[in-house]
C-alpha cells in the first residue's frame, strides 16, 4: 500500500487502470472505433439498498466524484465511461429513458456540459446536478415543481483523455422496501427494482453487491436478487462498507465471519472497504488515513486480499478480464447482427442524391429495376427474384386466373335466359363444369386503393340465367312481327340478342376491375421492392397516379366499347362455327321430329338395329308446325348459335384489347409508365422534388455509413 498518501486525482491515472493492457487490447481498440456507442461492453454496476454506500464505493474505486449522499439518494442511474481522446475533458449528458416522450427526449438530449478535469467537475457538481434534476423533471427541495421522484433517464459522464482505459461504471438508485408518503410510491419501488434488474441481468455486468457492515446481511434483498440473475455467482462480488461505524466487538466479529465465508457464502466472496463518511472531515478524505483502520483488530486478522480498495481493485481487474473474454463471442454475434441491420438501413436510403445528376441516376436505377421486375412478372419468370414469393407480384398468373374466371362466368352465367339444351349439340360443351380452382371471387379485395373507387366495381357476383326462354322469345316475335315473307326478321334477332346479353357489361366490368386492381397492386408492391426509401416511393406514387388512372380508365373504356359493339350492333359473324352450330342444331331438331316416325329394323348380318323414315312422311312432319312455333324455334336456334360464337369472340377480344393491349404489354400500358424514359423526361425541378433528399436523410446516411464502417473494422479486430 505504497501510494496511500497520493491524492485522489493521481489515483485516477494509475491505480484506477483496472484492466490489463494485453487482455483488453482488443476491447480498447473497439472502444476507439466507438463500438461502445452501439453495444454494451463489460461494465461495473454497484447495487444495494439506499445509502448502503454505492456511490461512495464507486468513487473510492474509480476516483471520480460520484453524486454521493445527494439529497437522500440517487434518483437515476449514472453511467461513467472512459474514452481515449487527444484532449482531456469530461462531458456530462443525459440519455433519455426507454419510455421517454418525444418532448422529454428532446429536452434531455439537448443537455450538455463540459469541464476540463475531475477537480473542476467536483467543484461544479452540485450546480450540474441541479440542472440535471430540473432537466429530467425530478422533484427536489431546489426543484419543487418536478414531477418525478425517480427517472429512467441516465446521467452520462464521459471522461476523455489520452491515457483513459476502457471502463464503464454504473451507479443505480438504491433498492428500497418501504415507501414514504409524499416522497416515494409503490410505482417508484417497482421502477427502481426493474432498473436494477435491467443492469444486473446483462452477462457483461459485474455486480458489486454493496452491503453496509453495520446492517444485518440477512436483511439485504440485493444478494437474493443478484443470485437470481447471476445463478452461477460468477460476476457477483459482495462489498462491505462502513466498517468504521461498527463499535461493538461482536458485530465486528460477525462481519469477519462473512468475509471468511463462514456465513452466507458467496462464490466470489466478500471484500471490505472504507469510504468517505458523510461529514467529509479532513482526516477522512485521505484513503490511507481511512484504511489505517484495517491495521486494527479484528480486521488485521483477515486475509490481505480481502481488505481495502487495492485488493478489491485487483480482483475487479481480473474479473473484468474474464468477463470480457466471455463476452467476446456475444459481442461478435451482436456486432454481426448490427452490421447486417445497419447495412440494410443504409441500402434502404440508397445512394447520395444531392445533385441533379445523382438524383437522375438514382431514379433511373430504380425505374430500371422496376421494368426488370415487371418483365419477369409478365413472363412468369418468378425464379429470378425473391420478391415473387409475394403472390401479388406474380402478375401474369393472377391475370390468367382472372381470365379463366371471366371465361367460366361468361359461359355459365352471362345469358339472361338459359338456352334449351339439345342432344348432340350441348353434350360436348361442359356446361356444368366446376369453376376454375382458386377463382371463386365474390368481392374485389382492394380497400386500400381509394383512388380506384370510382373506376371499379366491388361486387363480383352474377345472377344465374333465368328459365322460360321460349315464352320470352314468343313475346319478342309477337312484338316485332312485320310484313315479311319469312318468319324471322333481323330486328327480332337484334332485339333477342340485346336482351340475352344485358349482363355482359357488368361481368366485363367485374373482370376489368379484378385486372386493374391486380395491376395497381403490382405497381404499388413492385415499387416497395425496388425502392427502399418510403419517402421517394410515396412521391413516385403520387406523381404517376394520375397517369395510371388514365390508363386504367382507357382500358375500361375499351372494354365497354367492345360490350357496346357486340350487344348493340346487328348480330353478324363470318365465323364458320356459326353455320356449323346452326347445322348441328337443325340436324338435331330434324332427328327429334322424325324419331316418332321411324321404324326399327334389325340387320341380321351384324345384329345392328337401325332406324328408317319413309321419305313420304317428311312433309307431313314439317307441316304439323304452326308458323309461330316454327319462328320461335328458329329464333332460339339462331340466337343460340350466334350467342356461342359472339361470346367466345368477345371474351377473346376483351382479353386481347382491353387487358393485354391496354393494361399489360401495349405501348400505353401503365406498367411501362415508371421507366427510365420517364425519369429522363423529368426536368431538374420535378426530379429534385421526387428524388431529392432532405438534410435529415443526408445526416442519417453519413451516420449509418460511419456506423457500418466502424462495425466492419470492429469485426476485423475481433
Ligand atoms: P448510496 O445511496 O448507496 O449511493 O450511498 P452513498 O454512497 O450516498 O452513502 C450514503 C452515506 O454513507 C454517505 O453519507 C456516505 O458518506 C456514507 N458512507 C458510505 N460509505 C461509508 C463508509 O465506509 N464509512 C462511513 N463512515 N460512511 C460511509
Ligand atoms: Mg447513491
TrEMBL record:
One GO term (biological process): endocytosis
Residue stretches making up the Dynamin-type G domain: 38-329
InterPro entries: Dynamin (IPR022812), Dynamin_GTPase (IPR001401), Dynamin_N (IPR045063), Dynamin_stalk (IPR000375), G_DYNAMIN_dom (IPR030381), GED_dom (IPR020850), P-loop_NTPase (IPR027417)
Keywords: GTP-binding, Hydrolase, Nucleotide-binding
Any coiled-coil regions, as ranges: none
PANTHER family: DYNAMIN, DYNAMIN GTPASE
Record's protein name: P-loop containing nucleoside triphosphate hydrolase protein
Native species: Cercophora samala
Amino acid at each position: 500500500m505504497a501510494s496511500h498518501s497520493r491524492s485522489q486525482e493521481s489515483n485516477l491515472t494509475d491505480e484506477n487502470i483496472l484492466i490489463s493492457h494485453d487482455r483488453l487490447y482488443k476491447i480498447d481498440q473497439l472502444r476507439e472505433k466507438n463500438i461502445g456507442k452501439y453495444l454494451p461492453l463489460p461494465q461495473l454496476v454497484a447495487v444495494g439498498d439506499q445509502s448502503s454506500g454505492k456511490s461512495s464505493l464507486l468513487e473510492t474505486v474509480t476516483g471520480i466524484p460520484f453524486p454521493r449522499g445527494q439529497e437522500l439518494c440517487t434518483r437515476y442511474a449514472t453511467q461513467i465511461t472512459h474514452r481515449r481522446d487527444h484532449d482531456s475533458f469530461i462531458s456530462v449528458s443525459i440519455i433519455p429513458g426507454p419510455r421517454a416522450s418525444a418532448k422529454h427526449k428532446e429536452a434531455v438530449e439537448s443537455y450538455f456540459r463540459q469541464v476540463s478535469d475531475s477537480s473542476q467537475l467536483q467543484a461544479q457538481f452540485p450546480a450540474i446536478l441541479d440542472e440535471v434534476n430540473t432537466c429530467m423533471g425530478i422533484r427536489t427541495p431546489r426543484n419543487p415543481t418536478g414531477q418525478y421522484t425517480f427517472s429512467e433517464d441516465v446521467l452520462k459522464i464521459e471522461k476523455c483523455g489520452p491515457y483513459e482505459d476502457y471502463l464503464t461504471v454504473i451507479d443505480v438508485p438504491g433498492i428500497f422496501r418501504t415507501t414514504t408518503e409524499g416522497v416515494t410510491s409503490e410505482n417508484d419501488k417497482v421502477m427502481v427494482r426493474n432498473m436494477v434488474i435491467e443492469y444486473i441481468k446483462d452477462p457483461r455486468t459485474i455486480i458489486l453487491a454493496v452491503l453496509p457492515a453495520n446492517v444485518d446481511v440477512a436483511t439485504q434483498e440485493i444478494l437474493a436478487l443478484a443470485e437470481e440473475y447471476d445463478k452461477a455467482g460468477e460476476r457477483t462480488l459482495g462489498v462491505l462498507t462502513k466498517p468504521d461505524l461498527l463499535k461493538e466487538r461482536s458485530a465486528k466479529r460477525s462481519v469477519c465471519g462473512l468475509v471468511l465465508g463462514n456465513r452466507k457464502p458467496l462464490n466470489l466472496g466478500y471484500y471490505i472497504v472504507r469510504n468517505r463518511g458523510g461529514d467529509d472531515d479532513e482526516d477522512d478524505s485521505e484513503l490511507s488515513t481511512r484504511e489505517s483502520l484495517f491495521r486494527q483488530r479484528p480486521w488485521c486478522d483477515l486475509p490481505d486480499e480481502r481488505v481495502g480498495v487495492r485488493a478489491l481493485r485487483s480482483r475487479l481487474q481480473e474479473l473484468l478480464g474474464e468477463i470480457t473474454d466471455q463476452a467476446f463471442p456475444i459481442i461478435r454475434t451482436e456486432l454481426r447482427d448490427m452490421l447486417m441491420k445497419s447495412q440494410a438501413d443504409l441500402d434502404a436510403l440508397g445512394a447520395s442524391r444531392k445533385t441533379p445528376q445523382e438524383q437522375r441516376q438514382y431514379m433511373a436505377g430504380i425505374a430500371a429495376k422496376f421494368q426488370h421486375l415487371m418483365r419477369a412478372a409478365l413472363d412468369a419468370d418468378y425464379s429470378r427474384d425473391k420478391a415473387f414469393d409475394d403472390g401479388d407480384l406474380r402478375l401474369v398468373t393472377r391475370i390468367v386466373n382472372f381470365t379463366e374466371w371471366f371465361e367460366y362466368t361468361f359461359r355459365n352465367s352471362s345469358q339472361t335466359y338459359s338456352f334449351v339444351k339439345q342432344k348432340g349439340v350441348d353434350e360436348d360443351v361442359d356446361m356444368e363444369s366446376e369453376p376454375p380452382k382458386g377463382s371463386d371471387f365474390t368481392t374485389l379485395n382492394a380497400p386500400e386503393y381509394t383512388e380506384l373507387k370510382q373506376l371499379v366495381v366491388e361486387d363480383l357476383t352474377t345472377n344465374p340465367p333465368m328459365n322460360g326462354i321460349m315464352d320470352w322469345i314468343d313475346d319478342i316475335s309477337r312484338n316485332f312481327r312485320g310484313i315479311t315473307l319469312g318468319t324471322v326478321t333481323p330486328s327480332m334477332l337484334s332485339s333477342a340478342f340485346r336482351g340475352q346479353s344485358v349482363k355482359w357489361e357488368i361481368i366485363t366490368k367485374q373482370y376489368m376491375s379484378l385486372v386493374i386492381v391486380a395491376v395497381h397492386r403490382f405497381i404499388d408492391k413492385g415499387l416497395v421492392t425496388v425502392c427502399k426509401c418510403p419517402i421517394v416511393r410515396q412521391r413516385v406514387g403520387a406523381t404517376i397516379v394520375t397517369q395510371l388512372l388514365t390508363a386504367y380508365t382507357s382500358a375500361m373504356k375499351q372494354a365497354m366499347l367492345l360490350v357496346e359493339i357486340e350487344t348493340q350492333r346487328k348480330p353478324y359473324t363470318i365465323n364458320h362455327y356459326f353455320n356449323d352450330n346452326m347445322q348441328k342444331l337443325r340436324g338435331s331438331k330434324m332427328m327429334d321430329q322424325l324419331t316418332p316416325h321411324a321404324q326399327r329394323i334389325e340387320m341380321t348380318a351384324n345384329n345392328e338395329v337401325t332406324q328408317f323414315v319413309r321419305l313420304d312422311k317428311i312433309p307431313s312432319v314439317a307441316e304439323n308446325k304452326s308458323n309461330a312455333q316454327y319462328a320461335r324455334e328458329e329464333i332460339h336456334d339462331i340466337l343460340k348459335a350466334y350467342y356461342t360464337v359472339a361470346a367466345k369472340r368477345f371474351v377473346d377480344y376483351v382479353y386481347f384489347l382491353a387487358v393485354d393491349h391496354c393494361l399489360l404489354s401495349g405501348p400505353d400500358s401503365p406498367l411501362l409508365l415508371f421507366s427510365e424514359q420517364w425519369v429522363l423526361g423529368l426536368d431538374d425541378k420535378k426530379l429534385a422534388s421526387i428524388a431529392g433528399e432532405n438534410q435529415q436523410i443526408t445526416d442519417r446516411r453519413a451516420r449509418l455509413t460511419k456506423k457500418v464502417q466502424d462495425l466492419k473494422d470492429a469485426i476485423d479486430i475481433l
